[in-house]
Design brief:
Chain B: Pfam families: Fer4_11, Fer4_4. The complex is a heterodimer of chains A (567) and B (177). Chain A is of the alpha/beta class. Chain A has 21 helices and 21 strands. A 6-stranded mixed β-barrel of chain A has the order 16-20-17-19-18-21. The C terminus of chain A is likely disordered. Chain B has 5 helices and 8 strands. The chains are: A alpha/beta (567), B alpha+beta (177). At the A-B interface, helix 1, helix 2 and helix 19 of A face helix 1 of B.
Chain lengths: 567, 177
């Protein structure tokens, strides 16, 4: 995020795009509610009536997969009505003339049939966004989990450039990252193209620095993104390029990745699969080796929040049983593979990382202890450098010339759209309580008492009536790739023709249905759109028994206590 | 006057922390040590979501409670400004559930593990008791992350009415004759 999470409360306008805070991050949602109480205007763009949409001043209930058209129609209005910040554009940006020319075509009337949002509503939203004293954009997976994702991120950033909403407090653009410490994983270089602090693996000077520090030769090639693994296992002909072994930790691709049939085949074809996690999960069922590791309350470390803020986490209880911390396991594996690695504590690891990462160098354990949290960049160890609450101060951007770059491109529809055979769209979403792939929360009894297998499919009351199904009925859902059984949840919060499922359930596993199409830049799959069909199940008693038996069988295979459990 | 918990839908984010807080307050942390299937999970409030509203619904603790008037065994009484169901007296007849105009009463397995004479589970009426006898007052109010729930007492009602009267007086004085 270019800003800090606390700044959300003081923005004059929040433009919330494809982000459902109440379900994915209740603690951030609290700030949104606070902002509203303090008088902020709320504009929400979402195909569903989310909690934020419900309390918003304006809700643009767009059709899924039309983001780019809407973003550029807003730019069109801002330019056409003379609401752009000409001084900011002249002083701090490049590419405005081409941008202006490109978005000319994207009039609200042009966008209306694509987005299913009235042209006048697009105009009103654009005016409000441009005119507010400070406007802040918050976006989530409703932007990122499309095959056209990075384009929309750049498009949203262009709206902020266009209106001068960068460089000061309570403005900017914020991807509110999906998972706990996903920001930290990226910050620490758990990406195929960079080391810690986003230092490029193809930069010779950077590579030499790491080679010297670690005393080994390092590759100068970008690695393989997670979502390319199935292809590199199943379709790669060149034995040298083919993947043979897969070491997975803190991830459950057999639950979270699209097209689970393909993932299971991939795990099956691999010669060797290692799974390192806190509890058994679907991936673990296909692993050759399982390395049990400690959970969040059982170890020390540092997390990065979505707003670049580092914060220490501390061990609360002693771990029980045959488990080790992730960093100890990695050290032991490395040593066994011939590269001796030893640390006494997480501070030693952090200090080594800092010494190799200029933009994080100033964030010492001592300073974190004193300040609670530090947002990078923080380059100096002295107490004067308290980090950077918001980026691009004074309109100075990260491009070499310090100027922000406008971006526009044609809208592309989702890769698989509705057809006579598959007439409904499906988007994967989150629900409050159960987190991510349920590894952490599925066995938590209080949360399982609120929601348990097989989960729900959110449908409009009109569609329920058409299919003659009611709340709680079990229903068959299928796509070109797979099928499953889940429960019907009629809700006025979704539009006819569109359906929504959360992706953590083992039985109602919606990733059996999703498509493996990726954004060409981020390699993130299009989890927010695929075509499905629904089929009423006449024999409900059979279906209930099927769900119960499946749950018991999965739990048994995973070695989870199968004591009486009502499904 | 009986007290009640009032929710503000403009603040509620539908997270259901209140429901978990309610169960833990009434059952104690023992539910975390028991085997699944051996404890009951009976939230005394339910988060309702419509197109425009999200808010937990629970007992209003009416001044003239339909449930109390309907109960044939006098298992419902007013104690400490609270309408309370005496679980040991309840015969599970469901009359109060039908009588309640707010849908605030449901029928659940008794949490004391009590059985019927034939050995089957005892089913009784369940509703909000404002955490009567529990230190700190209603758990839902205490755990709500957006402070969307408030315990309304006589004093709170009087203060609110008094503030409104003051506001009315000020607005009247601004009306020129």
């Amino acid at each position: 995020m270019s800003m800090g999470v606390p700044e959300i409360e003081d923005a004059k306008l929040l433009f919330i795009f494809g982000y459902n805070g109440a379900d994915s991050h209740p603690i951030v949602a609290r700030r949104i509610v606070k902002a509203k109480q303090k008088g902020a205007k709320l504009i929400v763009v979402d195909p569903r009536i989310t909690e934020s949409a419900r309390i918003a001043d304006m809700h643009l209930q767009l059709k899924g997969g039309s983001n780019m058209a809407l973003v550029q129609a807003m730019a069109n209005v801002i330019i056409a009505e003379g609401l752009a910040d000409q001084k900011f554009i002249e002083d701090h940006t490049n590419g405005y003339e081409e941008y202006k020319e490109f978005v000319k075509k994207y009039t609200p009337e042009y966008a209306e049939p694509i987005c299913h949002v009235p042209a006048e509503q697009i105009r009103e939203a654009a005016r409000a966004y441009a005119k507010a004293e400070s406007s802040m954009i918050l976006y989530g997976m409703g932007v990122c989990q499309f095959a056209q994702a990075v384009d929309v991120v750049k498009g949203l950033a262009s709206l902020a450039l266009l209106t001068g909403n960068f460089g000061g407090p309570n403005m900017g653009i914020g991807p509110v990252r999906g998972q706990n410490n996903v920001q930290g994983a990226c910050d620490m270089g758990a990406l195929p193209n960079c080391y810690s602090g986003y230092q490029s693996v193809t930069d010779d000077a950077v590579r030499e620095k790491f080679e010297k520090a670690w005393g080994v030769k390092l590759s100068n090639k970008v690695g393989i993104p997670l979502t390319h693994v199935p292809h590199r296992v199943l379709e790669e002909k060149d034995e040298k390029k083919k993947i043979h072994a897969y070491y997975i930790f803190g991830e459950d691709p057999a639950q979270s990745d699209p097209d689970l049939n393909e993932i299971r085949e991939t795990l099956e074809k691999l010669d060797f699969v290692v799974m390192q996690d806190i509890f058994m999960n679907k991936t673990g069922l296909q692993a050759d080796v399982i390395l049990p590791s400690t959970a969040w309350g059982e170890h020390d470390g540092i997390y990065s929040a979505c707003d670049r803020g580092f914060a220490r986490i501390r061990k609360a209880i002693e771990p029980k049983g045959d488990v080790k911390t992730d960093w100890e396991i990695i050290s032991l594996i490395s040593t066994a593979m011939g590269y001796p690695m030893h640390y006494n504590n997480t501070k030693e690891i952090w200090d080594e990382m800092r010494s190799l990462t200029p933009s994080f160098f100033g964030a010492t354990y001592e300073k974190l202890e004193a300040l609670g949290s530090i947002q990078w960049p923080c380059r100096d160890e002295s107490m004067e450098d308290k980090g950077t609450p918001y980026l691009f101060t004074g309109g100075k951007f990260s491009h070499p010339d310090g100027r922000g770059k406008f971006f526009a491109t044609e809208w592309r529809p989702p890769c698989e759209v509705e057809s006579p055979e598959y007439p409904y769209s499906l988007s994967t979403v989150r629900e409050v309580g159960h987190y991510s792939v349920r590894t952490m929360t599925g066995n938590c009894r209080a949360l399982a008492n609120l929601e348990d297998e097989p989960g729900w499919i959110q449908m409009s009351p009109e569609d329920c009536e058409k299919l003659n199904v009611k709340e709680g009925d079990l229903i068959k859902v299928y796509s070109k790739r797979g099928s499953l059984i889940t429960r019907v949840l009629p809700t006025e919060r979704v539009r006819p023709g569109a359906t929504y499922m959360t992706y953590q359930w083992w039985i109602g596993a919606c990733n059996e249905l999703t498509t493996p199409y990726l954004d060409p830049v981020s390699n993130t799959p299009e989890s927010k759109y695929c075509a499905i069909n629904l089929e009423k199940i006449d024999d409900q008693a059979w279906a209930e028994q099927y769900v119960k038996d499946s749950y018991e069988s999965i739990r048994k295979n995973m070695g989870i206590d199968t004591a009486k459990k009502e499904v | 006057m009986n007290y009640f918990v009032k929710g503000n839908p403009d603040l509620c984010i539908g997270c259901r922390t209140c429901m978990i807080g309610c169960v833990v307050a009434h059952e104690g942390t023992k539910i975390f040590q028991m085997k699944p299937g051996e404890y009951v999970f009976n939230p005394k409030l339910d988060v309702v979501k419509t197109a425009t509203i999200t808010i937990p619904v629970q007992c209003k603790h009416c001044e003239n409670p339909a449930c109390m008037n309907a109960c044939p065994v006098k298992a419902i009484e007013v104690v400490d400004n609270t309408v309370i169901i005496a679980q040991d007296k309840c015969i599970g007849c469901k009359t109060c559930m039908i009588a309640c105009p707010y849908g605030a009463i449901d029928m659940v397995k008794a949490s004391d593990g009590g059985k019927q004479q034939d050995g089957s589970d005892r089913i009784i009426a369940n509703k909000c008791d404002l955490c009567n006898g529990i230190e700190g007052g209603p758990a839902c109010v205490r755990v709500c992350p957006t402070a969307s729930l408030k315990l309304i007492t006589e004093e709170a009602v009087e203060t609110s009415a008094s503030n409104k009267r003051t506001a009315a007086a000020i607005s009247l004085s601004q009306v020129k004759e």
